[in-house]
Amino acid sequence: MIAARGVEKRFGSRRVLRGLDLTVDRGRVTLLVGANGAGKTTLLRVLTGLCRPERGSVAIAGLDLTRARLAALGALAFLPQAPRFHPRLTTRAVAHYYGRLRGRTPDEVMAQLGHWGLVDHVGATTAELSGGLRQRLALAIFALARAPALILDEPGLSLDPEWRDRLQAHLNNEARGGAAVLVATHLLGEWEGKVDTCALLETGRIAGTLPPGRLRAFFLTGSHDEPPTS
Q: Pairing with 147, which of 73, 174, 176, 201 sits 20 to 30 Å away (CA)?
């Protein structure tokens, strides 16, 4: 489970998160949506320990992110919106480096590279990879974590439709295996009907949930025919 309780965050005089509560349950894929400036990026940074809230608490897999920081972060895998790799390192070198950090064998690393269609690119430097291939490398590394809590920021932006489908299938499989999965995105059409829950973030708070099968309707002008549920 990923849980935020009463989280508040300011940057100078600007109050970005306002007593925010969010629960991402195990066994479910939860989508996080909201307009630009609603606080999605700040929330993800707080949930992943990249910045500290002024008030409130965050727990990852039952571990308090303040009191048991290392253990909580060890239960988490985070895929940022624009992952970066050393441009002179090969796909193989980058993947094996992260594999060693996660205690994975070389065979396990190569299996993930194969799963994400990268076997033919293992000798290429990351500078030579297209945006889509770099994103698939990031996903292979992300999958090596085998963490019970998964947080992803716009993971489908650089992927073509086939690989977006594979990503969604992968995340749903992880959830069915017991992981708590949180995905922040603007690509509502790509995720409609493919998640279990959708949380709407507005002005620093979770305003309610949206029906996963009707996401686009809630963001088309004049089509808000029913309110979000709280």
A: 201
The amino acid occupying position 58 is: V
pTM of the model: 0.90
> From first to last of its 230 residues, what are the pLDDT tens digits of the chain?
999 999 999 998 888 999 999 999 999 999 999 888 888 999 999 999 999 999 999 999 999 999 999 999 999 999 999 899 999 999 999 999 999 999 999 999 999 999 999 999 999 999 999 999 999 999 999 999 999 999 999 999 889 999 999 999 999 999 999 999 999 998 888 898 999 999 999 989 999 999 888 887 776 643 444 445 54
Q: Which long-range contacts (CB under 8 A, 24 or more apart) does 100-108 make?
A: 102/144, 102/145, 102/146, 104/144, 108/144
As given in the structure block, the two tokens for residue 131 are 């945006």
Encoding tokens for residue 118?
A: 């990268």
